[in-house]
Amino acid sequence: MSKRDDYVNNLKSQLDQWNAEITKWEGQAKAAQANLRAEYEKQLAGFRARRDQATEQLRKIQAATGDAWIDLARGADQAWASMSEAFEKARSHFKK
Predict the structure, then answer these.
(1) Which residue ranges make up each domain of the chain?
(2) Nearest-angstrom CA–CA distance, 11 and 16
(3) What is the pTM of this model?
(4) Which residue stretches of the chain have pLDDT < 50?
């Protein structure tokens, strides 16, 4: 397997984990009282936006030809770092 394939597989695995957490949090948001539901929805919206950015970076890497994926990986790393930060922030809100 190439470095690119390994990189893409790692990104996909992380996205799958984040998507599973989103599903869990959506259930918590639906069950929350009205005053908490709005805050949960706000956190989820921000998290989904960052996830979508990370997914777009993944698509670009998959579509890149030759060594162009290496340059795109740098952008993906930044998107992933932002996503990880948002994930931890959302996790702290949903654990309350």
Answers:
(1) 3-94
(2) 9
(3) 0.67
(4) none
